[in-house]
Design brief:
Blueprint lengths: L16 H22 L9 E5 L6 H11 L7 H4 L5 H13 L32 H7 L11 H4 L4 H15 L4 E3 L7 H7 L3 E7 L2 H16 L13 H4 L4 H21 L6 E5 H6 L1 H14 L24 H13 L5
Parallel strand pairs: 1-2, 1-3, 3-4
Helix pairs in contact: 1-7, 4-7, 9-11, 9-14, 11-14
Length: 336
């Protein structure tokens, strides 16, 4: 059964402890600089786009789509290395990459458009999940990726707003960030920010379960080890067989996200089906631009992106395994 403390990954997914140590040291020093910078800002002047939903639902593709449009700013793989000082990360990015006009520094890996592995993108300027940033402000429970009411009351929303405002100023565009780590706290986030649009991205659950099981195998070399977000029900789910466990995990995440979205102002929410997004991204673009206009942010409504994407909804397991997945999805929420 699933151990409570998963392995740090295998092969290319194993955590680099030397890098972790360096990041901790550098961010420890730079955090004080960010505190000084924060005092110049109060709140983002443009709406935030916060991407919510279950893992393996197309959120990375969606972020890459936003990035390629040029209409949104976002935490890149480079900026993510400066999670305690994102403003400085943005300025370093502009010095090393965006304004390297003579090619004196040219060793950064170029962005691989619309490709990723388990949410990991390629290229210094490609979108990053930015989980270390969110974890600085939100203390998650040991056995669930939720914040207790006591710790939620301690979240420094003033500092969070100042820091995002500084990053917005440095990048000069509205910010788009993955925020699925906080799927259980959407109403709190709505109250924390003056202008925000929650994008709830959904995908057919059976394909999500299939992808999650494959992700476990790729990340840890076993389907038995827990992968990705832990809902509050984790303690009751951790001893279930893998297929049933993942189906319940996705059900819990989607339920929390849907309930949170239902509680916010409709003008601040947009639910998108992954399949529809892949089939007709121009329609989604129009809906997104309209929502931002409702928040008094007027972006370019001319769509210039791909006409469609290949939806990864392909059965990649045996007929027997697929039937097991479909059955688990149908009964999810009834056994816990």
């Amino acid at each position: 059964m699933t151990p409570t403390q998963p392995d740090p990954g295998i092969g290319d997914f194993r955590r680099n402890q030397t890098l972790e140590s360096l990041l901790k040291e550098v961010n420890g020093w730079l955090g004080g600089c960010q505190e000084v910078i924060n005092q110049q800002y109060t709140r983002p002047g443009l709406p935030l786009l916060l991407l919510m939903g279950a893992p393996q639902s197309g959120t990375t593709l969606f972020m890459q789509w936003l990035a390629e449009s040029g209409q949104w700013a976002y935490p890149t793989n480079l900026i993510s290395r400066f999670y305690a000082a994102p403003y400085l990360g943005a300025r370093i990015q502009q010095i090393l990459i965006e304004n390297d006009i003579h090619g004196e520094i040219s060793g950064f890996k170029p962005t691989a458009c619309y490709t990723s592995t388990l949410g990991k993108t390629e290229g210094a300027l490609a979108p990053h999940e930015f989980w270390y940033f969110w974890r600085r402000f939100f203390t998650l429970e040991p056995d669930a990726d939720v914040v207790s009411p006591e710790n939620l009351a301690l979240v420094d929303t003033e500092k969070l707003n100042r820091e995002l405002a500084a990053l917005e100023f440095a990048l000069g565009k509205p910010l788009a960030l993955k925020a699925m780590l906080l799927n259980w706290h959407i109403p709190f986030l709505e109250a924390a920010f003056d202008k925000v649009l929650f994008v709830n991205l959904q995908r057919e659950p059976a394909y999500v379960v299939q992808s999650m099981l494959a992700g476990r195998q790729k990340q840890y070399g076993s389907e038995e080890i827990w992968y990705s977000f832990k809902p509050p029900e984790y303690i009751r789910l951790k001893n279930l067989p893998p297929v049933e466990q993942v189906a319940e995990q996705i059900y819990a995440i989607r339920k929390a996200t849907d309930e949170g979205i239902a509680r916010v102002n409709p003008s601040r929410a947009l639910t998108i089906q992954y399949e529809e997004f892949c089939q007709n991204p121009a329609t989604i673009w129009a809906a997104l631009i309209e929502k931002f206009a409702g928040l008094e942010c007027y972006l370019n409504n001319a769509y210039t992106g791909p006409s469609k994407f290949h939806a990864a909804n392909t059965i990649r397991v045996s007929a027997e395994r697929w039937a097991e997945i479909e059955q688990a999805v149908q009964t999810a929420g009834q056994t816990i």
